[in-house]
Amino acid sequence: MKTKSITRLQAPGSRPPLERMIRIHQSIASGEYPNATKLATEFEVSTKSIYRDIEFMRDRMYLPIEFDHIKNGYYYTEPVENFPAIQMTEGEFFALLVAEKALQQYRGTNFEKPLFSAFKKMAAALPEPISLQISDWEQAISFQLRQTPIINLEIFDTIASAVASRKQIEISYKKPGNPSAEQRIINPYHLSNINGEWFLFAYDTLRKDIRTFVPSRILSIKLTGQTFEKKHKFSIQKFLRDSFGVHSGSANYNIVIRFNERVADYVREKKWHDSQQLIELPDGSVEIRLTLSSLLEIQRWILSWGGNAVVLEPPELIQSIKEATMRILDNYK
């Protein structure tokens, strides 16, 4: 077992309630007989806040606190060695460790600074250096992200703020393959990270419809000064329910794909879509059946399996795979 120390990072301004209560405990336990006025001055809060802290410590944390009217301060009626610890189950600690490891993938990216800032604020709520017993789990878990989106952090922050406050934005947006950017005025509804990529779902005021934007393709952004109300109830779950990624359409395709025995186990290992049905075949191969509203992303996925996946339905998807395959072959003539 190893010991890992987490040092508290001091946040500006007054201390968070948990840290105040730990300081109050230390002052009482050392025999200083502090009172509410003294503590309020030290922590730069009102005496009401101190009274609430003391009440919580006594009634919820069961600390034996009493007030000595002669010495005009609080004291413990019986010895208290340690401030009550926040208890974690093994499962909760493991989940916390996994989350910390997952966030390491953003080191060196545009997200490192805001993530560090967020952890700094959380760390300010911790006591002075605390110790956690960590097993070899931390050496057994890691996350590797080979491809990260290149995003202008200032633009990303403006998007996130506009989504949260429902503020309309004007963006300069360049689609792949287009020689120049387009000016778009949009109402940003939802910002989502899907399979490691960020996407913005917004109401396009010109096209009068919900459109999907990639933040890394936004060259410039500014607020229009207008706020908005969603024209209809938007649910990201419903919007993406029939898509294979982020692209939704208005059609309804019943898709059947057969995977040979060489890759069948890989297909069985994951749930690829909420609508999927897996059908086992006698020769060890497997069929997957899906219901989707668009064929764009499923086509790319099928091609990624090389010749180990064969589309059986629908005819439109069969034809698109044939055409894509011919283009690939033409590149190697």
Task: Explain how this protein is built.
The chain has 333 residues and is α+β, with helices and mostly antiparallel strands. The protein has three domains: 1-145, Orthogonal Bundle (Arc Repressor Mutant, subunit A), CATH 1.10.10; 153-234, SH3 type barrels, CATH 2.30.30; 253-330, Alpha-Beta Plaits, CATH 3.30.70. Helix content is 33%, strand content 25%. It contains eleven helices and 13 strands. The strands form four sheets. Strands 8-7-6-5-9 form a five-stranded antiparallel β-sheet, with helices on one face.
Classify the helix fraction into a percent range. Answer: 25-40%
What form results from the Cα inertia axes? elongated
Question: What is the helix tally?
Answer: 11
Structural classification:
alpha+beta
Q: Write out the CATH superfamily name of the largest domain.
A: Winged helix-like DNA-binding domain superfamily/Winged helix DNA-binding domain
CATH topology of the largest domain: Arc Repressor Mutant, subunit A
Q: In the CATH hierarchy, what is the class of the largest domain?
A: Mainly Alpha
Secondary-structure arrangement, i.e. CATH architecture of the largest domain: Orthogonal Bundle
Q: What integer value in Å does the Rg equal? A: 29 Å
Detail the poorly predicted runs.
Answer: 1-14, 126-136
Strand order of the largest sheet: 8-7-6-5-9
* Topology as a string of helices (H) and strands (E): EHHHEEHHEHHEEEEEHEHEEHEH
